[in-house]
Design brief:
The complex is a heterodimer of chains A (449) and B (318). Chain A is mainly α and 449 residues long. Chain A has two domains: 36-72 and 208-449; 74-204, Up-down Bundle (Four Helix Bundle (Hemerythrin (Met), subunit A)). Chain A has helices at 24-31, 35-72, 74-100, 108-131, 135-163, 168-207, 211-235, 241-301, 307-321, 326-333, 338-366, 370-378, 385-418, 421-448. The longest helix of chain A is centred in the middle third of the chain and has 61 residues, at 241-301. Chain B is of the alpha/beta class and 318 residues long. Chain B folds into two domains: 70-171 and 263-305, Periplasmic binding protein-like II (D-Maltodextrin-Binding Protein, domain 2), CATH 3.40.190.10; 173-256, D-Maltodextrin-Binding Protein, domain 2. Chain B has a five-stranded mixed β-sheet with strand order 5-1-6-15-7. Chain B has a five-stranded mixed β-sheet with strand order 11-10-12-9-13, sandwiched between helices. In chain B, helix 3 packs across helix 9 and helix 3 runs antiparallel to helix 10. Classes of the chains: A mainly alpha (449), B alpha/beta (318). Chains A and B meet through helix 2, helix 5, helix 6, helix 12 and helix 14 of A and helix 1, strand 5 and helix 7 of B. Chain B: Belongs to the bacterial solute-binding protein 3 family.
Chain lengths: 449, 318
């Protein structure tokens, strides 16, 4: 670009030294009647728009990152801990009731399962209490934390009396399960609901498009284009390299902003559809199965004195295995995934075996063949209900692991599509600003040369 | 200009750091109730039945054995080859599952076995049908069982629905308390004492009428023992047979005071099965005469009740 002498008529009046501050605005307005002033005005508008787009774009991306970080971070950890707590408590109760029926001599496997469930529950309580954000959640965790030792105390009393051959052990076990069923599991469920709600709020934040930044970027682009047209009319020169550079940089800015936002929204959505939703379903199925198992054992522990337990078993089993219920919904969710749908099919088979076996156990118990009923319910033969329940549980756990991996993958993809975007957008907008400023300043300088 | 932008960016970044860190800064510690485990369905203020008791009959008067043969009795079984007996498997010492062997055992079981063998012979095919107390009358009506030996008190209301044998055990309502409580009988109970018993049982009414203690009811009286051990209630009241079954499980508890109600236990049959009732009455006389009854009593109840028990004498209406 060659520098030409400025047109004489555009000579700006020299600013009067020591002018009263009140008159500055008038003078600035007056200066807009002349080209250099107009150029400075354009630069001011461009600077404002580019800066605006840059700051809002960068902050939007940073916010998205923070939110995605949160789904794997705070809310994510809270919802995972809440889910683990709910599962561990159900598992503990299912195992405690089953092992009670083995006449004081539970298998090593049952003992280990019970202890592991208690460990998982206490770890989950500790994790969750570090992640809670609301007083309501704090209270739920405190309630659970206060009740867990009471529950384990009742279970140990039940075991001791059972070993001593005192029937009152059965009542202790029933009381423990009542505490679990009526106070602890509902609290754990509420905590899980709250955590999932917070997670869903984060997700819709993460999927939102950064409209403010997009509008500002488009406005800056429009202004740039208009300024170039205006300038080429004024100066009879087609290109102002500074402004052209700024335009290209801004186009890059807008493109990156749109791409990063849409891609991360897509990944976040996938993490929800392929990860979080089936994970919730799987967990619900597992927990329902565990609660059904606990009720089944209680029917036998109560020696026929608790007909409500039989009804509660039916309620859980219906919610798990009836047409259109949890297992069917899982089947639908995994329809086009052979690995997961094979797991669900195996789980379904185990649930069906368990269900028909349960009717047999109830029949045996009603006929007074109590020993046979107990052997069928908790015995370690391959045909016992314990075996069916264990298979069901294992299949659901395996499917959960696969789903959890998918969730983590999609969240990582969402995070990756944002990586560098915030810094990149800041650099692009800064460069655009500098480029526009240089381009316009060169023109302005011609008037004072 | 550039410096300005850097400052803006720094400010924006600071906002995020702050937002990310604004966690549970000043949350008050939550107020949590002291967890007290309670059985579901516990009622601390149960309604007390006040309708007059039906005393229009002599509840002890059954049918005399006469000349009814085992053949005639078997004809009234639902299935002539086996005998179905309704029992409890949750009432320690009377009818319960031994937690170690899962086998049925108890005083009621011994009496029922002896009766079944009288009807069907020594290798009687007995089908034990466990049931709750509320299932007793319906299970006879629905032919699920032939007879019921399950701590069942004979009274006029029930005579309208079932046939009873002669009295096979003379129970009465008493109190189970911690030995250290100093309570020695009904007179020691005050309005501050909580007394636990099964809901829907006549024990609630008896204790409410004869003492000012506050009754607490639970769906299954076994819950009472746990509540007493946990200190939630001060005493348990129900039939002495059931209290004995609780007392043997805890050396710090004892059955105290005189019986303050009369609970004659009878074997129940479906209404109209009088031949079966007559034959069983004959069998009961034999069981009492040959010492089977006394052996069962000594095995199960003598120690816990600390009373030299004697079999009740039969009373017949014809």
């Amino acid at each position: 670009m060659s520098v030409q002498s400025p047109p004489a008529q555009a000579q700006a009046p020299a600013p009067a030294a020591g002018a009263a501050p009140g008159r500055r605005f008038d003078r600035a307005l007056a200066s807009l009647r002349y080209t250099p002033g107009q150029l400075r005005g354009i630069l001011a508008v461009l600077a404002a728009l580019i800066l605006g787009a840059g700051v809002t774009g960068m902050t939007a991306i940073l916010a998205k990152s923070a939110v995605i970080e949160e789904t794997t971070g705070q809310s994510g950890r809270l919802s995972v801990a809440a889910l683990q707590l709910y599962q561990a408590l159900s598992q503990a109760d299912a195992t405690a009731t089953s092992s009670y029926l083995t006449a004081g001599t539970p298998s090593d496997e049952m003992n280990d399962t019970y202890r592991e469930a208690l460990r998982d529950a206490t770890v989950a309580i500790a994790t969750a209490s570090g992640e809670v954000k609301t007083p309501a959640d704090t209270e739920l965790i405190a309630e659970l934390n206060a009740r867990l030792p009471v529950y384990t105390g009742l279970v140990e009393s039940a075991r001791t009396f059972n070993r001593l051959g005192e029937p009152v052990g059965a009542t202790y076990q029933e009381q423990a399960s009542t505490l679990m069923r009526e106070e602890m599991l509902p609290s754990a469920h509420d905590l899980q609901d709250n955590a999932l709600e917070q997670l869903n709020e984060s997700r819709s934040d993460a999927e939102a498009f950064p409209w403010a930044a997009a509008v500002l970027a488009v406005a800056a682009l429009a202004t740039l284009v208009w300024a170039q047209l205006w300038l080429s009319r004024k100066t009879n020169r087609v290109f102002n390299l500074g402004l052209v550079g700024a335009t290209l940089l801004l186009v890059g800015f807008a493109g990156w902003l749109a791409f990063a936002s849409l891609a991360s929204a897509g990944h976040t959505d996938r993490s929800h559809e392929e990860g979080a939703v089936p994970l919730e379903l799987l967990a619900e199925a597992e927990i329902t199965a565990q609660q059904a198992r606990a009720e089944e054992s209680l029917v036998l522990i109560a020696r026929g004195e608790d007909s409500d337990a039989a009804e509660r078993f039916e309620t859980h089993m219906t919610a798990l295995a009836d047409p259109g219920q949890l297992l069917d919904r899982l089947d639908d969710a995994f329809a086009d995934d052979p690995e997961l749908s094979a797991r669900v099919d195996a789980a379904r088979e185990a649930a069906d075996t368990w269900r028909s076996g349960h009717d047999e156990v109830i029949k045996l118990a009603q006929e007074g063949r109590y020993t046979d009923a107990v052997a069928m319910a908790v015995g370690d033969s391959d045909t016992s209900l314990w075996a069916s329940f264990r298979t069901l549980n294992e299949e659901l756990t395996a499917a959960t692991e696969v789903s959890a991996d998918r969730f983590a993958e999609a969240t990582a993809d969402a995070q990756r599509s944002l990586s560098g975007a915030a810094a990149g957008l800041a650099v692009l907008s800064l460069a655009a600003l500098i480029s526009a400023a240089v381009g316009i300043q060169l023109r302005v300088a011609e008037y004072y040369a | 200009m550039i410096r300005h932008q850097i400052r803006l960016a720094a400010a924006a970044a600071a906002c995020f750091v702050l937002a990310a860190c604004s966690g549970p800064a000043n949350m008050e510690p939550p107020n949590i109730d002291v967890p007290t485990p309670l059985p579901s369905g516990i009622d601390f203020e149960p309604d007390i039945e006040t309708a007059p008791v039906d005393e229009s009959c002599d509840p002890l008067a059954s049918y005399s054995p006469g000349a009814v043969t085992a053949e005639q009795a078997r004809a009234q079984l639902d299935d002539g080859e086996q005998i179905s007996i309704g029992i409890s498997q949750s009432t320690n010492l009377m009818g319960y599952r031994d937690p170690e062997t899962n086998a049925l055992a108890g005083f009621d079981i011994d009496i029922a076995t002896a009766v079944a063998e009288a009807v069907l012979g020594a290798d009687a095919n007995i089908r034990w049908v466990p049931m709750t107390s509320n299932e007793r009358v319906p299970s006879l009506d629905e032919d699920r069982v032939d007879l019921i030996v399950r701590t069942m008190t004979m009274n006029c209301d029930r005579w309208n629905e079932v046939e009873f044998s002669a009295e096979y055990y003379h129970a009465g309502q008493r109190l189970l308390v911690p030995t250290a409580s100093g309570i020695t009988g009904l007179a020691d109970l005050t309005a501050d004492h909580l007394v636990c018993t099964g809901n829907g049982s006549t024990s609630v009414r008896t204790i409410a009428e004869q003492s000012e203690a506050q009754a607490v009811t639970v769906p299954d009286f076994n819950d009472c023992l746990v509540l007493l051990q946990q200190g939630t209630v001060d005493a348990i009241t129900t039939d002495d047979t059931i209290l004995a079954g609780m007392a043997v499980q805890d050396p710090t508890l004892q059955v105290v005071g005189d019986a303050f109600s009369v609970e004659p236990y009878g074997i129940a049959f479906q209404k109209g099965n009088t031949d079966l009732a007559r034959f069983v009455n004959g069998a009961l006389e034999t069981i009492i005469a040959d010492g089977t009854w006394q052996a069962a009593y000594d095995k199960w109840l003598k120690g816990p009740l600390a009373v030299e028990g004697a079999p009740p004498g039969p009373k017949y209406r014809d």
